[in-house]
DNA sequence: TCGACCGGATTAAACGTTTAACCAGCGTGC
DNA sequence: GCACGCTGGTTAAACGTTTAATCCGGTCGA
């Protein structure tokens, strides 16, 4: 199959390539009939315009960049997939640039993408870093940046909702588990949970794993804690296996819950209760904001997308005699 | 900062843009002195050739595609990262195309990439599918395809090594856990394990989760099995939590091990023993094969990349009185 | 002394698309 | 009857590179 160009089609119809271009784009003045026939023929032979040629002429590549800075973010694949889907729907291709490591690597990755001609960039930044503005439109997921280009799940609301559910189950002494204080996402989730618990007069203690690498969770349970809420299913899993290994029954003696509904969360026993975020909605939001900016329009006002509770087996009513073995 | 082109530099030196191009590429005939000065100036102002212009002229975009067909593959992020790094080192950009779903979606993703001008494509295919040849060079990871373009970890050897280690620990009655029979990777791993065990005269039983969604692992332990080897850490985790929940001590009463060293594998308690693959080496191999083919050379002969055992806490000597509670 | 050759650069074409500017008819209003 | 405007196109330039073909002045060999 030979390579098809506008010229090829133009010759078939005995018209100029400009006319074919106009017919396909619907922009210039072409008779309705001819336009229809040209479009039909183009579809028939599967004509697709050459991206480089178009890019050269228009200055736009039809490609957006995706910077995934934090490899340890277990949502990575889902973000990649969701952004890819949203981009495809908007006619964009997705160039990735992983920037494991420091903030320097992150900005280097951004530069690579602009040099390759990305029309805009979606960034899932390394936790705790701000993304500096650069010469292409940006959409930042889950991190503070210049206002108007950040898309977030409602981590605080999700935290509050999760806490509310545990309160409803009768829990009054809970442990909150976070990993890194410098993660905005984790701070928001902890904050939401802590606020809801405080408002209800429940007792809550927060543990940051960066301070205490291997806390003795079973001991906390024996001291009276009846529920462990972690900012990520990964840490919820750590708690769960530690409790089980110590012979504590989950959820009979203690409840465990996390965030993000990771791959393993439904596979463990008991299956983890988790607060999930709608990754696809976030990605769509990011892409909407981005393509608006690429087109020169103002970005639509964004709202935090709600999280949803997935209640499985790892949570249950608070035990009558907390912590008793 | 204005946009820099060859012309800009050419004018500064009072020469033609062709000369600048030659100087930078080292191809035509330019006096050594002038060439040096031009290169210096180009570096100084950070000149980078326009990818679309170059692509239009040369017919090569400098971009490779990456098709990640199986989202459920937890190695996804590591492959993305490794391929990105290898591509960057070779001067390529990476366009992704996720194709969750069936084989049709997979080929659709491939088409999208060729249409966008990918010079070659790396595929991590959906399990059990063959990748059909198309008009651009392909490198397939972990799946059968036309000979010469498949890069694999040594799954069979890894399986054998893992089994050998458990044999050395004294285990003689083991359970092998796989998920899908149509996955080549899983078949290879199971095959390697089973062969090694059979050769040593140990008893091995294989369970495919697609047949029995929720097998009673604790019961198997009570019947005498002292070790559970799963084709993925994900399933090893399922086994581990099921055993723990049933009050069985790991590894005192039963050992558990998996493959791929997933994110959570070190975080659970006891930490999972696992057979890890060198994702970076595989990615480099894939990229070497791919760029060779793009350049028109024959692909270098590939060898399966060895896997390495990461021994952690979930495996130990076989209990003296197997299965006894 | 003249043709050949060679180093060092220039010219020009080409890649495929988009788009502003132009042009030929043709019907219309006045 | 003529300027005007509309319709349906065409021409040509431009985007930035690469590369084959060409050109020019000097040097060398014969």
UniProtKB/TrEMBL annotation, chains A, B:
<dbReference type="Pfam" id="PF13377">
    <property type="entry name" value="Peripla_BP_3"/>
</dbReference>
<dbReference type="GO" id="GO:0000976">
    <property type="term" value="F:transcription cis-regulatory region binding"/>
</dbReference>
<dbReference type="InterPro" id="IPR028082">
    <property type="entry name" value="Peripla_BP_I"/>
</dbReference>
<dbReference type="Pfam" id="PF00356">
    <property type="entry name" value="LacI"/>
</dbReference>
<keyword id="KW-0804">Transcription</keyword>
<dbReference type="InterPro" id="IPR046335">
    <property type="entry name" value="LacI/GalR-like_sensor"/>
</dbReference>
<dbReference type="GO" id="GO:0003700">
    <property type="term" value="F:DNA-binding transcription factor activity"/>
</dbReference>
<feature type="domain" description="HTH lacI-type">
    <location>
        <begin position="4"/>
        <end position="58"/>
    </location>
</feature>
<dbReference type="InterPro" id="IPR010982">
    <property type="entry name" value="Lambda_DNA-bd_dom_sf"/>
</dbReference>
<dbReference type="InterPro" id="IPR000843">
    <property type="entry name" value="HTH_LacI"/>
</dbReference>
<keyword id="KW-0805">Transcription regulation</keyword>
<protein>
    <submittedName>
        <fullName>Transcriptional regulator, LacI family</fullName>
    </submittedName>
</protein>
<keyword id="KW-0238">DNA-binding</keyword>
